[in-house]
Write a structure and sequence with these properties.
alpha+beta, Nucleoside Triphosphate Pyrophosphohydrolase, five-stranded mixed beta sheet, three-stranded antiparallel beta sheet, 23% helix, globular, isoprene biosynthesis
């Protein structure tokens, strides 16, 4: 899965009182530290995998992260960024079952999507990306992310502490949104921007044959 960090600081050096306390609790989750080749080397908080959910019209569900989020608040991004934990059920590497369980858990937590609407066997693991990005000068991310696609029509019941808005977009609508983001003051998460610029549309063009897009050997370095 991935790693994510608050620079080279410890929790004792951070004044958490200025942050939303629900989000602070999430930062305490024990996650998996990896080396640059995706090999587990320890545990800490916290890490992410990226879920892209499409409806039956092949429209992508975006979310806008809540203002309360500690990293990248108010930014638009892919459907969900799940956080695989250092727990037995989410450490399972066979068929990326731990990744899928984390994605399913976080879709419920953030967007209220019931597990039966996103069965574990419907998630398609495509590939991995390795990237790093600062957030606000204190917090940042340095991650290896698993990319999961799923096609499903779902019911949403968003958690406002996690998500402030959602929208489905076509390829053309997303391209326009990204192209005009700066002039309209729309913020985009760095990982989603990177994926949009490099890999997303190739996958999207092959959404109805998504199995053909799997690349489990490569870690795309950004």
């Amino acid at each position: 899965m991935t790693t994510s960090s608050a620079a080279n600081i410890t929790n004792d050096e951070v004044d958490f009182s200025k942050y939303d306390q629900d989000q602070v609790e999430f930062m305490k989750e024990a996650c998996i530290i990896l080396d640059e080749n995706d090999k587990p080397i320890g545990r800490a908080s916290k890490k992410t995998c990226n879920v892209f959910l499409f409806n039956s019209k092949n429209e992508l569900l975006l979310q806008q992260r809540a203002s309360e989020k500690i990293t990248f608040p108010d930014c638009f991004t892919n459907t969900c960024c799940s956080h695989p934990l250092h727990i037995e059920s989410e450490l399972v590497e066979e068929d990326q079952l731990g990744v899928r369980r984390a994605a399913q858990r976080k879709l419920l937590q953030e967007l209220g999507i019931r597990p039966e609407q996103v069965p574990l066997d419907k998630f398609v693991y495509l590939t991995r990306i390795h990237y790093k990005a600062p957030s606000d000068g204190l917090w940042g991310e340095h991650e290896i992310d698993y990319i999961l696609f799923i096609k499903a029509d779902v019911d949403l019941d968003i958690n406002p502490n996690e998500v402030q808005s959602t929208k489905y977009v076509t390829k053309e609508e997303l391209k326009e949104m990204i192209a005009t983001a700066n002039e309209k003051g729309v913020k985009i998460t760095p990982w989603f921007s990177l994926i949009d610029k490099t890999l997303l549309y190739k996958w999207w063009d092959n959404l109805d044959d998504i199995e053909s897009q799997k690349d489990h050997k490569t870690i795309h370095r950004f």
